[in-house]
Design brief:
Oligomer: single chain
Number of domains: 1
Number of helices: 6
Radius of gyration: 19 Å
Structural class: mainly alpha
Largest sheet: none
């Protein structure tokens, strides 16, 4: 959660600086737009993992309301298994993509493009870990 706040502050600061330098100083920064874009991607992936941990994905809630109560647990397990498979695909192809682009550099920040692209497998891995730990965490919360 704290990392999400820090990333948001960095993103807002970069965009604010870009506006000031572009419209007040008339000398736009060549790195701030890139930085805010990459930080936003990382924040989205980390935020999605927090959403999984908290079971706060609205699409799943809408589906559960359509299903009889006794079948909801079975559907929940099926949906999270399906999400888990999708996350495994994201992890695999995210790592593969990083292996292909690690020598490319971002023009403004002059960092390896593997750093922003690492958000995909890292975020997917966090989400997958939250799904795998879900039975243990939620059983402790219920007092079981």
């Amino acid at each position: 959660m704290t990392l999400g706040v820090v990333l948001t502050i960095v993103m807002v600061a970069a965009v604010f600086l870009q506006v000031i330098f572009r419209y007040v100083v008339n000398n736009p920064l060549n790195w701030s737009e890139e930085l805010s874009r990459y930080v936003f991607i990382w924040a989205c992936m980390l935020g999605a993992s927090i959403g999984i941990r908290r079971k706060a994905h609205y699409g799943l809630d809408a589906i559960f309301k359509l299903i009889p109560v006794r079948k909801q647990k079975l559907v929940e397990v099926f949906l999270y298994a399906l999400i888990g498979v999708f996350l495994l695909v994201l992890i695999y192809f995210g790592i593969k993509l990083n292996q292909e682009i690690y020598l490319q550099t971002a023009p403004g920040l002059e960092i390896s493009m593997s750093l922003p692209y690492s958000a995909i497998p890292a975020g997917a891995l966090l989400m997958l870990l939250h799904i795998l730990l879900m039975p243990f965490v939620h059983s402790k919360e219920r007092g079981n």
